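Aim 2 progress update. The chain analyzed this quarter is reproduced below.
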Amino acid sequence: MLHSKKAHSSRIIHHDGKAVRVKRSGVKKFLRSDFYATSVSSSWLRLIVTIIILYTLLNSIFAGLYLLEDGAIENAKSGSFADAFFFSVQTLATIGYGKMAPATNFANILVTVEALTGLAGLAVATGVIYSKISLPSARILFGNRAIFSLHKNVNCLSFRLGNLRNNPIADPLIKAVLIIDEELADGSIRRAFHDLVLIRNNVPLLMPSWTLRHQIIESSPLFGMTKEEMRKKNIEVIVSLVGFDETISQTVHAHHSYIADEIEHGKNFVDIISFDKRGRAHVDYKKFHDFI
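Predicted structure tokens:
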């Protein structure tokens, strides 16, 4: 539980399922993050751009070092940064075309250091890229709205999710948690967490579309709460999925959240499953987020 003198307005989970970044103080920087975790969690574009920048910067540094001694590189133009740079590229990648070569002891020492740096850099880059490629992920689609509607004459909070891949996800377990502002006697705000009991929260295999429901009965923390009260109390419903992907033989996770303005009242999801003449199911994901 979190305590504050003011009400909370920011959500914990973004629409893409990633946790909202929190500003931390009083902790040393190296304890808050590390190179590996930052690299693996960053986007592909950011990672590739970072590698290109570091690669160019490293070659530029070594090119400048080669230019410290005139004639350090055989067959290179005197004072030519371009020749020194491309010689550095060949050395860092251990290519060695045979046209340019180290001509002095100073250059040979730099080549030795750069070759070792290149091997280490290649190992690190390969490890990060491999880890990012092999990182298990689930292509789980969550409806962008949750709804309050009647189900078997009981008011329920319902939300929909689906498996976009053909990969079978075995034993998926769904949990729903309500986060809400609660005012204490001293006037401070407590950010409280309440489990929302689902009518059914697991199946043998994750289906292309699955609607989950929480009954709004007296034992529910949402019982009797209006939409305006939900806004005032800054509610957020976090839905999480854990399952086993049989194709990659790894556990996968997915998360989504809904705030008060993302919950529709008195609506129902549009049916997206139909069957052809052969009895095969067809799921129309174009209507996945639609409700009536």
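The two ends are 36 Å apart (CA to CA). The chain is about 30% helix and 30% strand. These observations will guide the mutagenesis experiments scheduled for the next reporting period.
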